[in-house]
Task: structure prediction
Amino acid sequence: MNLLKEFFIDDKCSYLDNKEQTMHYKMIDECDIESCEALVERGYRRFGKMYFRPICSQCSECQSIKIDVKNYTFSKSARRILKKASHLQTYIQKPTLTKEHLTIFKKYHLHMSDKKSWDYTETSPENYHSSFISGHEDFGYEVLYYDEDKLIAVDLIDILENGISSIYFYYDPEYAYLSLGKYSLYNQIKFAKSTHKSWIYLGYYVEECPSLSYKSQYKPYLTLKDRPSEYERYQWF
Result:
């Protein structure tokens, strides 16, 4: 692991109105799987070669959350969603970039801009590469979902020793009726169970943020206590 740069940025909170945030960033080149997992277990997220987490001194609303895979059971509604989308074809591979990726990415974010008032900014191939392809090393993958020969969704994940870290998921809004966000997460859980992994790392849960509060639906789950450094023991409860 080669730490290229470490820095902090104060900015408007990404999740809650009328709040400020302080983010801690580490840019790491050639991060190994053990170091990645150690950072994820301490509340860091990965986009490309950038690992980051909030360290706001006056707020602790961002809670790192992970699903307890071994004790998770699929509800009737989950089984219905799995059945409804069972005709889709799934492929897992190292992250790639095609015109189809960018087209769906744009459609998804325009859709979320209308639906949830997300800020929309056009994403260039360079930005996409830096966020989702760079830094994947030997643990980063994309799961591609096809309806016959049409790409309709992309799930970016890290497959770690003890769990799966969900990085980012986007889909073609024309297929929203398939509940693809839930479907992809159920598939992560199924894969984790079949490969004897313990956790699905979902990033941050923020109770008052609609885009993040849904994560508490996936029980049982654990949240991370405090913000331990990489030199401190961590505790989930």
Notes: Residues 99-116 form the longest helix (18 residues). The chain has a mean pLDDT of 96.
